């Protein structure tokens, strides 16, 4: 199966006078798993809806496989966009929705769909309106995976599922990706659960792209430093501080920016403890309102 790359250049989207997407530029190679992170209202769904041809941008360029996707039937059938809210007709049965989906995506895998139907115990004869939130999510996940679309996008599509079902989804996605590579874009709030799948991470904040980095590189550029207040203050002078906590005389600071070998040796000589920073912690610190200024975010996003 072919994989399709995505190019976005100076993308803008406005709803009236409100700018939902502000001059966003990035490039996604085909055949990778991307995580799209951002707080509510950051512009994630607006961005994904443009990629999926659901709406046209106000300004800027988007290409998928070298072609503009909006009102382009050739590209639209290569992109599958599954949202948490779902876009299924309440008056249709589950089997009708699956039948329609099979006609929409030329790479649809009926055998794989049957496997997923059994895995999630989907009630084929039930109307969509009679499904629980969890079952609607399972239906969306089934369609997204079975579509085998070269660009498959999940926008919080699995939030309604219970934890065992979500983890089954993560396992299925990774297994299918290894067997039939395609481009996955996953928008999520459940960073600790699904973050290990991401090969690259994009972070949106108030409509701006503040970070696009390989996951391992991003995590290596943050560190937690813990020890006596005086020693911690000494070693973190001049570093970008994302957050700090005090517990008695012990201070813990989260910094962003790769620590030099000199910094590390100095920290250990001062009796400080160095630790990794989770993707979740980096995301929270980078997007919190009282966190980095726009100038600091721009600086932090540079390698």
From TrEMBL:
<feature type="domain" description="ABC transporter">
    <location>
        <begin position="6"/>
        <end position="231"/>
    </location>
</feature>
<dbReference type="GO" id="GO:0005524">
    <property type="term" value="F:ATP binding"/>
</dbReference>
<dbReference type="InterPro" id="IPR027417">
    <property type="entry name" value="P-loop_NTPase"/>
</dbReference>
<dbReference type="Pfam" id="PF00005">
    <property type="entry name" value="ABC_tran"/>
</dbReference>
<keyword id="KW-0547">Nucleotide-binding</keyword>
<dbReference type="InterPro" id="IPR003593">
    <property type="entry name" value="AAA+_ATPase"/>
</dbReference>
<protein>
    <submittedName>
        <fullName>ABC-2 type transport system ATP-binding protein</fullName>
    </submittedName>
</protein>
<dbReference type="GO" id="GO:0016887">
    <property type="term" value="F:ATP hydrolysis activity"/>
</dbReference>
<keyword id="KW-0067">ATP-binding</keyword>
<dbReference type="InterPro" id="IPR003439">
    <property type="entry name" value="ABC_transporter-like_ATP-bd"/>
</dbReference>
């Amino acid at each position: 199966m072919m994989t399709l790359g995505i190019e976005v250049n100076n993308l803008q989207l406005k709803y009236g006078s409100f700018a939902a997407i502000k001059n966003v530029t990035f490039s996604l190679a085909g055949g990778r798993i991307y995580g799209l992170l951002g707080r509510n209202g950051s512009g994630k769904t607006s961005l994904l809806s443009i990629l999926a041809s659901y709406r046209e941008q106000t300004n800027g360029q988007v290409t998928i496989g070298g072609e503009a996707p909006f009102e382009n039937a050739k590209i639209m059938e290569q992109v599958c966009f599954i949202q948490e809210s779902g876009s299924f007709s309440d008056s249709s049965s589950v089997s009708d929705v699956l039948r329609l989906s099979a006609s929409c995506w030329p790479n649809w895998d009926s055998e794989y769909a049957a496997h997923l139907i059994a895995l999630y115990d989907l009630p084929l004869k039930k109307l969509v309106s009679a499904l629980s939130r969890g079952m609607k999510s399972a239906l969306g996940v089934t369609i997204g995976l079975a579509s085998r679309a070269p660009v498959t996008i999940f926008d919080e599509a699995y939030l309604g599922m219970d934890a065992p079902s979500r983890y089954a989804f993560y396992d299925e996605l990774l297994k299918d990706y290894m067997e039939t590579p395609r481009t996955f874009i996953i928008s999520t709030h459940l960073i600790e659960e699904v973050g290990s799948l991401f090969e690259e991470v994009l972070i949106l904040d108030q409509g701006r792209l503040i970070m696009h980095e390989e996951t391992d590189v991003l995590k290596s550029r943050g560190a937690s430093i813990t020890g006596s207040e005086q020693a911690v203050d000494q070693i973190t002078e001049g570093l970008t501080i994302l957050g700090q906590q005090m517990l008695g005389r012990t201070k813990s600071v989260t910094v962003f920016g790769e620590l030099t070998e000199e910094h590390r040796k100095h920290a250990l000589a001062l009796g400080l403890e160095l630790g990794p920073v989770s993707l979740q912690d980096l995301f929270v610190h980078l997007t919190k309102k009282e966190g980095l200024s726009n100038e600091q975010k721009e600086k932090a996003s540079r390698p």
